[in-house]
Specification:
Keywords: Copper, Glycoprotein, Melanin biosynthesis, Membrane, Metal-binding, Monooxygenase, Oxidoreductase, Signal, Transmembrane, Transmembrane helix. It is a single-pass type I membrane protein. With 536 residues, this protein is mostly helical. It is 32% helix and 8% strand. The chain is built from 13 helices and 14 strands. The strands form six sheets. The chain has a three-stranded antiparallel beta sheet with strand order 1-10-11, covered by helices on one side. Helix 1 crosses helix 3. The longest helix is centred in the C-terminal third of the chain and has 28 residues. It starts with a helix and ends in a 26-residue tail after the last helix.
């Protein structure tokens, strides 16, 4: 437990830091949530360093038209012009800051992930660690940071409480303040919410962050932004998200008051009153109510965090994931396949997300495995997609999922072209901008090794043997594919050598002497072919 004194001191320090900190990543920049910006469709705020839009006078960036991908989309969303998230963010803005070099941010006032310094020239790689390898002091600091984020308003960002149409096409802005933690809860909701079609009609088969290729890059970007926001509001530039390695776990070992909150003594669906998280209020959990009202989540409080780990539907999720499940998933060579949604077979992404069997890679949406299994197992706030980020276990869980993604990238070393450029579900093509992030990021920008984005995982650094194995695996897989040909070639070669030797030796003898034996050169042929569930 954290003392009141510790929390008070951190809150005071936080209040001071918020006065001097530069803007960070999030959803709608406060400086662009006004009539002028919406009607002009331009969000190019000035950088405080020189007062020019996007820091143009300092060569940080410039205000540019948004370049939208023209690649065709998959058939999953049969509408056009009905959802504000289509061709993000063009419904709200069609001109934003385009930053140069290593600069980043909605006004180019920050450094790209993995860089620091005034001119963003210093490379850095920080290490995310297992939560159980943190010292008591480090663990308590992490819990305090979470609580601070839940109680501090975001200075730079606001959320939309209405659609663009409900805002009278920008002439009547509908935005509100939100605390730092809930800003990210709301972004996760907004990316995965249903499409409002008018009347009582909605379209549920849409998600800009799940059930398609962008699932892993989207959450990778989400965690990096969340991590940076904590660094900024606390002044702790070395902070990294810890992860929970849940492989082979028999129960929720972080579900106690020392870590993420134990079970309430009289109500098993609530958290222990001894946990700092028992006082947290959730938002964006009542999707059916929003749909019936054709409204967006307004981030009003909707009750305490709910969690009852292990008392879930065992027919859907009989157990937590095993090491064998993870290893099989990592062996899959295809990142994406087929329809590129939750029905994809032999897809690493779909298997890791949990819509395919972790022993066969065949799609089976009636079961929830790997990533989805953890959400279902928690049996509460974390088990409903749109509001799942309300439970702080979310960040521990997704950090470990991201580490599995990282292992796959290191093992298979895919080119960027492996990520689908076209025909993925809406919002998931390689060049699509991720919803609802401003500044803008494309899906393909996060389909790269974590060290290029400025972070690593402790357990991926330590075992040299595992790193060597990950390096060697793709070559072994290639050898396995042509093994039969190699054996055949060896047998054929030995037969040819024996025959030639048998016929050549008499010739040597006839010449009455010996000659230098030349190597046998045989040209080889060129062998080129050698939701959670949608609703928990």
């Amino acid at each position: 437990m954290l003392s009141c004194c510790s929390v008070s001191m951190l809150l005071f320090a936080l209040g001071f830091l918020l006065v001097i900190l530069q803007p960070s990543t999030g959803q709608f920049p406060r400086v662009c949530a006004n009539v002028q910006s919406l009607l002009s469709k331009e969000c190019c705020p000035p950088w405080d360093g020189d007062g020019s839009p996007c820091g143009e006078l300092s060569s940080r960036g410039s205000c540019q038209n948004i370049l939208l991908s023209q690649a065709p989309l998959g058939p999953q969303f049969p509408f056009s012009g009905v959802d504000d998230r289509e061709e993000w963010p063009s419904v709200f803005y069609n001109r934003t800051c385009r930053c140069e070099g290593n600069f980043m941010g909605y006004n180019c006032g920050e450094c790209k992930f993995g860089f620091s310094g005034f001119n963003c020239t210093e490379r850095q790689v920080k290490t995310r660690r297992n939560i159980f390898q943190l010292t008591t002091s480090e663990k308590n600091k992490f819990l305090a940071y979470l609580n601070l984020a839940k109680n501090i308003p975001s200075q730079d960002y606001v959320i939309a409480t209405g659609t663009y149409t409900q805002m009278n096409n920008g002439s009547s802005p509908m935005f509100r303040d939100i605390n730092v933690y809930d800003l990210f809860v709301w972004m996760h909701y907004y990316a995965s919410r249903d499409t409002l079609l008018g009347g009582s009609n909605v379209w549920r088969d849409i998600d800009f962050a799940h059930e398609a290729p962008g699932f892993l890059p989207w959450h990778r970007a989400f965690l990096l932004m969340w991590e940076r926001q904590i660094q900024k509001i606390t002044g702790d530039e070395n902070f990294t998200i810890p992860y929970w390695d849940w492989r082979d776990a028999e129960d929720c070992v972080v579900c106690n008051d020392e870590y993420m909150g134990g079970r309430h003594p009289t109500n098993p669906n609530l958290l222990s009153p001894a946990s700092i998280f028992s006082s947290w209020q959730v938002i964006c959990t009542q999707s059916e109510e929003y749909n019936s009202q054709q409204a967006l989540c307004s981030a009003t409080s909707e009750g305490p965090i709910r969690r009852n780990p292990g008392n879930n539907d065992k027919s859907r999720t009989p157990r937590l994931p095993s090491s064998a499940d993870v290893e099989f998933c990592l062996s899959l060579t295809q990142y994406e396949s087929g329809p590129m949604d939750k029905m994809a077979n032999y897809s690493f992404r779909n298997t890791l997300e949990g819509f395919a069997d972790p022993q066969t890679a065949i799609s089976n949406p009636s079961q929830s495995s790997l990533h989805n299994a953890l959400h279902i197992y928690m049996n509460g706030s974390m088990s409903q997609v749109q509001g799942s980020a309300n439970d702080p276990i979310f960040v521990l869980h997704h950090a470990f999922v991201d580490s599995i993604f990282e292992r796959w990238l290191r093992r298979h070393r895919p080119m960027l072209e492996v990520y689908p450029a076209a025909n993925a579900p809406i919002g998931h093509n390689r060049e699509n901008y991720m919803v609802p992030f401003i500044p803008l990021y494309r899906n393909g920008e996060f389909f790269k090794p974590s060290r290029e984005l400025g972070y690593d995982y402790a357990y991926l650094q330590e075992p040299a043997l595992e790193s060597f194995q990950d390096f060697l695996t793709p070559y072994l897989q290639q050898a396995r594919q042509i093994w039969a040909w190699l054996v055949g070639a060896a047998v054929f070669g030995s037969v040819v050598t024996a025959v030639l030797t048998r016929h050549i030796r008499p010739c040597w003898k006839k010449k009455g002497g010996t000659s230098e034996i030349q190597p046998l050169l045989i040209e080889s042929e060129d062998y080129n072919n050698i939701s959670y569930q949608s609703n928990f």
